[in-house]
Structures are given as structure tokens and as C-alpha cells.
Amino acid sequence: MTIEFAEITAEGRELRLEYRWIARERAGAPLVVFLHEGLGSIAAWRDYPLALCEAGGFRGLVYSRPGYGRSTPRKREERWTLDYLHRQATEILPALLRAAGAGSERPWLFGHSDGGTIALLYAALRPEALAGAVVVAPHYFVEEKALVGIARAKTAYETTDFHDRLAVYHVDPDSAFYGWCDAWLSPEFRNWNIEAELGCIRCPLLAIQGHEDEYATMQQIDGIKAQAPQTELVKIPNCRHSPHRDQPAILTQATVDFIRRQDRRAAAPATAR
């Protein structure tokens, strides 16, 4: 599977994004677009997108957001503002889909952590554009547990080999780490909240979280369901913030079952539904 690059215009500038298709030749199969976490990239997903697409017979589209992987790095002086996740949903993702040749499709979004939040915002702000979304360890408000975890990660990045380990996945690991870390640890971010947007989500939604998540409590996905009642929840035992690493089989089965069920429902005659 070849890495390709898209030249897009977003956020008032020219950006270069790396992306990769999985099983593009599966004409008519559901398209799943993968949205990575706050320190993620195409490489950081490892082989999980391929494994999920093989299990479900899906097509896949994976990309690295600006500041990550081999996409355009963040400028040294650039600080991501309070609305950086909104801008990813309203500018970057639509531009990437158009550039990759998927702009006319109604894909499924599969988002992890920050990527899950971007999926929620995209679903809320573009309600007719999606078949549905699977959000894994998403966040819609800031918990103290998250801030403690991120502060701990910052200490590790600056005092251990964490920097070198991130360099495996990013050409500029400082771009990825400090873009995410500085945004979340800024004083104004403590009041960040997208609860109002959640009520606008109309598409099928599956929200998944591990019981041992080190960055969040179950209030995150329970709160999503309270605002978007069609949401189905999966709570995974013995699982931390990354179910695709800790419990990949459970995550894959839940996702494949959900997408297939919703696709069957969408294809059924209106009277049957």
C-alpha cells in the first residue's frame, strides 16, 4: 500500500498531507476513514487499519494530520488554538477527502482520542455527509484526569527516551508532541467543551472506551449518549486509552458488527425499517 501526498489549501495556507488507501479496488464496499490520536500518524496506527478493513471487507483511507507523520510540520512558533479540533473537522478533513478522490462519498469515520473528537464534530457539522462514525476514547470536555496524564507525558518526553520513540512515527516529533501538549495544557483549554454540538449528530454512532483509560472516565462516552441517544456504547475491560493496541479483537468485532448492521438497515426498504 503506497503512501501518497495531497496538496491542499486550508487554514489560509498550503499544506502537504500524507495518506494511504487500503483495498481501494473493493468497489461498493463501505469506506472507513481513520482519524488518529493526538500523537498519532499513519505509521503510529501500525497495521490496525489494514486488519480492520480485512475483517470487515471495507475500503480504508488513512492520513496524517498537519503537524504529524510526514505531513507538513507545525511551525516552531505556531500554537494550536482552542478551536483546532473544529478546524480539523471543517477544513482539513473535507479538503483531504476531495484531494484523495473521496469527496463525493458518505464514508464511515473511525476516530481515536483527538480523532474521535474530530469525528464527532464532523458528524455534528456535516450531518448528511456521513454513513456513520465509530469513536474510540473520544473526549467532548476536559477532565482533570486528562490534564494530569498529559502533564505526565510531557515530563516523560523531556526526561526519557519518549522523544526518540515518537521520532519513529514523525519526521518532526516536537511538532506532534508540543502541538498537542501545549494546546491541552493551556489555561484557556480547561473550559473547552463541545456538548452543544453533540445534539446535532444524527448518523449512527458507536462510542467505545476502555475501563482503565488513563486519560478519561466513562463520563465521556456516557455524556455523548445523553446528547445523541442513538449512540451505542461498548466499554472494554482490561483496556487503557488505546483499545486497538490493548484489545484489538474486541474493538474489531464491535466495529465490524456495528457497520454491517447499520449498512443492512440503511439498505432495507423504508417499510421494513
UniProtKB/TrEMBL annotation:
Signal peptide (from-to): none
InterPro entries documented for this protein: AB_hydrolase_1, AB_hydrolase_fold, AB_hydrolase_sf
Pfam family, one: Abhydrolase_1
TM ranges: none
A GO term for molecular function: hydrolase activity
Coiled coil: none
This protein's GO CC annotations: membrane
Protein name: Alpha/beta hydrolase
